[in-house]
Design brief:
- This protein is of the alpha+beta class and about 100 residues long.
- It is about 20% helix and about 20% strand.
- The protein has one domain (about 1-80).
- The chain has helices at about 1-10, 70-75; strands at about 20-25, 30-35, 40-50.
- A three-stranded antiparallel β-sheet has the order 1-2-3, with helices on one face.
- A hairpin with a 5-residue loop joins β1 and β2.
- The chain is globular and about 60 Å long.
- It comes from Agrobacterium pusense.
- InterPro entries: Transposase_IS66_Orf2 (IPR008878).
- This is IS66 family insertion sequence element accessory protein TnpB.
């Protein structure tokens, strides 16, 4: 875990203690490691897909940004690029 924290700080030039989730992928794209600070300690999660690989975007400057829904799809092993936010609108008054 210390290596991942050092990587976030020194290579990505980000503060690992902001609450942001940092996701690292294996070369074969079948494993993910997530680390984040929850306010009381570092949380690390690890996931391995048995039959598929994670859909991974092209990365610029070592970083990518996902919405909460896209992140959930990525972690579930789905194609996160197909996730779209539902359009919200004000409710219509009932007469």
């Amino acid at each position: 875990m210390a290596y991942a924290l050092t990587l976030v700080k020194n290579e990505l030039h980000k503060d690992p203690f902001t609450g942001a989730v940092f996701v690292f992928r294996s070369r074969k794209a079948d494993r993910l490691k997530l680390i984040y600070w929850d306010g009381s300690g570092i949380v690390m999660a690890y996931k391995r897909l048995e039959e598929h690989s994670f859909t991974w975007p092209g990365i610029k400057d070592g970083l990518m940004t996902l919405t909460h829904a896209q992140f959930e799809a990525l972690f579930a092993g789905l194609d996160w690029r197909r996730v779209r936010a539902v359009e919200t609108r004000a409710p219509v008054a009932i007469e």
